[in-house]
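Translate sequence into structure tokens.
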Amino acid sequence: MNEATPLPPAGWYPDPADETRQRYWNGTQWTMETRIGTPDFAAPGVAYTKSGATEYPTQPEVPYQAEYPPHVENPYQPTGIVPGYGAYNPNSGYEHPLYGSAYRGPRTADGVPLAGWWWRVLALLLDNIILNVVAMIYAPLLPDYTTGLTRWFEDYLRAVGQGSLNLPDIFDSQYYFIEPLLAYGAVSTIVAIIYATCMLAFKGATLGMLACQMRVVPTGHGQNATALPMGKAALRCVMYQVLSFIPLLGFINTLFPLWDKGRQTLHDKIAGTQVVRLA
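Result follows.
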């Protein structure tokens, strides 16, 4: 770079992307500050008419041909390129990482950002807390499985303490543990399906998802983030519960969005849904 020729002084100059505006040059590069109107003075090499329009003479009044670094363009040449920021599109707004970057992760086919895996896990934990609170209401109405479990555990510890090899079988009918446990599990599953199906059909999200600003939408239709058809919502919720009863498959289903291009779980793929985040 020619050290004898300095960079232009800091000040307001015609915006290279919009001649009706001015952009502030900080002495090194363009900033994000702009204003409307004709400046009180003209930048070197730029002549202003009475109407405020700019004229760029063939031979500038103050020739300036400094050799700029690769990341800085000549501020006197209206090239439509904002130095340091790449091509400027006045209709899209600035999305440079230094000034609030836009979301660049996976999106639906119509451009809505997909929810991240951790947000989905947080929403699931919140929903489980809600369902456990509801369970406190109906659990006393069901046979108590904890009594049989406690009796079996006491007998097991007693047999181990005596060195006996005849350990009690938890499936023994005397403990009356399995039947109440199955009844509790069945009621809990039905309640979870009804809760999730109704929420998705009327709100497009469960309470946990609403708290995390997420919605469940038909695959590729993120703009329709209001509610799901009842049939699609029911299928999604039932398949989630079915897959959860299969230990290995349920675990894979939970992790599936981590590597899936559309961030879908297996029950999302079956039901034809995606989870978007509206924040």
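Note: The CA atoms of residues 195 and 206 lie 8 Å apart.
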